[in-house]
Amino acid sequence: MAQLPDGEPVPDTGVLPESALADVGGRGFGVYLHVPFCASRCGYCDFNTYTASELGGADTEGYVEAVLAELALAAKVLPAPPRVDTVFVGGGTPTLLKPAQLGRMLEAIDGTWGLAAGAEVTTEANPESVDPASLRELRAAGFTRISLGMQSAAPGVLRILDRKHTAGRAPAAAIEAREAGFEHVNLDLIYGTPGETEDDFAASLAAVVGAGVDHVSAYALIVEDGTRLSARIRRGELASPDDDVAADRYLAAEAALSAAGLGWYEVSNWAADQAARCAHNLLYWRGGDWWGLGPGAHSHVGGVRWWNVKHPAKYAARLGEGLSPGLGREVLTEEQRHTEDVLLRLRLSEGLPLDVLDEAGRAAAGQALADGLLEPSAYAEGRAALTLRGRLLADAVVHSLLAW
Ligand SMILES: C[S@@+](CC[C@H](N)C(=O)[O-])C[C@H]1O[C@@H](n2cnc3c(N)ncnc32)[C@H](O)[C@@H]1O
Ligand code: SF4
């Protein structure tokens, strides 16, 4: 079957090249489900999400029906994939939907492809959008893992980020989640927010450690173009995040989390043990296959990447007419696949096999080793794995290994 040129809309019959379908499952198979609703928009966020006034007539029931319709089309494109190893429901705010609505879509995913025994099933949640009863319902619906957007324990930082929850709500929700039977609980932190002090971030780290979660993600604040945060910085109301401050915060995170028994396994992610690592994200980072359901969701199967229309009303309208919600797709070139491989796998503690690199890349790895950016023991075993200093300079190491 001929490959489609870059960017050509996905045909409504939704076919994939045979080359992409070969060995589906050999690389792991996951499902991402995007829930594009938020009660209000945080000033720093440019995710594909809509508040009530922006929905243009779309509603959550229509959304659930549309997702089920996309799943029916997906079953024709991937009729007999392997079982689903991981499901990740992200947003937006998935927990703006009722647990029963989330459970219905999860059941449909299981009914379409079948969840593997012991599959990891995660939902993201805003701390103020869950309570002990809804957490128990989510657990009963089949969710095994929950990821709560805490961001900070400092009230002033939460205010600058436009977060609606109090400082104590996220750790409290994490404890409630464990009591509801969640095996794995993650708290997300953002560091380097303008106005955040060293003490503020130390308090955030103490709070995640005190909550006893088995996973923490900590990301430096990114100022995305077109957001309210970026406009406020441009107007001089807030300072720009500072790279040196971000590096200090990262070192503080590593010190506090490792002292609490959480080890890094990806530059921005720490886990208590192997079982606590996010299998869904590992599948992305290791080049696995996944189907992305929902408005704006991206998918990847065997080197073919495609993405859906972004607005929930348009997404539902397309599916209502029996059409694919796909907006475009590209077949990755060998070079693009290599670049992604290096970019993603170098950020993992397990590192990147040196034999993936070309000659110039291997020479650059030798230089990175000499500069103290790669671990000597891993290097001796044929892998490029970042040292702590290397993690601070991960982007620069990637650039050098790709000889950009
Ligand atoms: C898109 S949110 C979805 C989860 C949920 N709505 C929430 O905010 O808690 C997932 C995570 O992305 C991170 N995030 C979003 N925008 C970011 C930005 N501009 N810079 C750094 N992290 C960001 C936050 O840590 C957030 O918890
Ligand atoms: S709640 Fe989460 S997804 Fe929604 S706007 Fe805020 S950061 Fe973005």
UniProtKB/TrEMBL annotation:
Membrane listed as a keyword: no
Signal peptide start-end: none
Superkingdom of origin: Bacteria
InterPro entries (UniProt xref): Aldolase_TIM, Coproporphyrinogen-III_oxidase, Elp3/MiaA/NifB-like_rSAM, HemW-like, rSAM, rSAM_sf
Domain Radical SAM core: 23-262
Transmembrane stretches, start-end: none
Compartments reported by the entry: Cytoplasm
Alphabetized UniProt keyword annotations: 4Fe-4S, Chaperone, Cytoplasm, Heme, Iron, Iron-sulfur, Metal-binding, S-adenosyl-L-methionine
Gene3D superfamilies, sorted: Aldolase class I
Main localisation: cytoplasm
Family (UniProt): Belongs to the anaerobic coproporphyrinogen-III oxidase family. HemW subfamily.
Function: Probably acts as a heme chaperone, transferring heme to an unknown acceptor. Binds one molecule of heme per monomer, possibly covalently. Binds 1 [4Fe-4S] cluster. The cluster is coordinated with 3 cysteines and an exchangeable S-adenosyl-L-methionine.
NCBIfam families found in the cross-reference section: hemN_rel
UniProt-recorded name of the protein: Heme chaperone HemW
Organism listed in the record: Catellatospora aurea
Lineage: Bacteria, Bacillati, Actinomycetota, Actinomycetes, Micromonosporales
